[in-house]
Amino acid sequence: LGSYDRNALAQLLRGHFGRGVADELLSRFQAGTSAHWPGACVFWLLDTHGRVRGGQVVLYDATGHTVKEPRRCTTWAHTALAQHYQRRGHPAPPWLADYAQHGQKSPCLFGLPQLATAPAGQPVALVESAKTAMLATPYFPRYVWLATMGLSYLTPDRMEPLRGRRIVLFPDAGCLDKWQAKADEL
Fold first, then answer.
1. What is the pTM of this model?
2. Helices 130-139 and 8-17, axial angle in degrees (round to 10)
3. Least C-beta-crowded within 10 Å: which of 42, 83, 122, 162?
4. Contact 129, 151 (CB under 8 A)
């Protein structure tokens, strides 16, 4: 939860919003910096009790797009950590091997800790990308912005903490029909 001078997303946010707003967003969403790829961001997935349940590591270019060449630079934090141990010739700790084999990789929505301080009547805006949730927050503060972390992660388990709240879905381009069908099902 620091080293933002080495974090491409933090630099993008600071350039766009200024240091104060950017740093508030990084703190609010508890975004971190990863050494897996120089400049990478970590989107930590914290449950409603503030426990880390997973994380996604993403490297962005200077324009804010995910780096895709020579390969897509997106991975899970547990995968990056396992590769770290492997590169150094050390065995992974037992908990990491167990998590890699049995753990849910995206067990909760991104940004959930905000619900602890948000008024019960404040509507929730749900998007796919953690970056989108962070970017939308200063523009549309009437919503609590959360992210599913993937198109297929709009599921009953992940939606449970939102029970009783008004929810507005903002699907990615081309995904309206899929999320509409999911919303009808949920």
1. 0.89
2. 20
3. 83
4. no
Name the residue among 140, 139, 132, 186 with its Cα closest to residue 159: 186
Contact 112, 92 (CB under 8 A): no
Q: Are strands 40-46 and 52-58 parallel, antiparallel or unpaired?
A: antiparallel
Largest CA distance in the chain: 52
Q: Which two tokens stand for residue 71?
A: 């390969």
Q: Please state the φ and ψ torsions of residue 124, each to the nearest 5 degrees.
A: -100, 135
160-184 pLDDT, tens per residue?
A: 999 999 999 998 888 888 888 888 8
**Residue 168, class by beta-carbon neighbours within 10 Å (0-12 exposed, 13-18 middle, 19+ buried)?**
exposed
What CA–CA distance (Å, rounded) separates 36 from 181?
A: 37
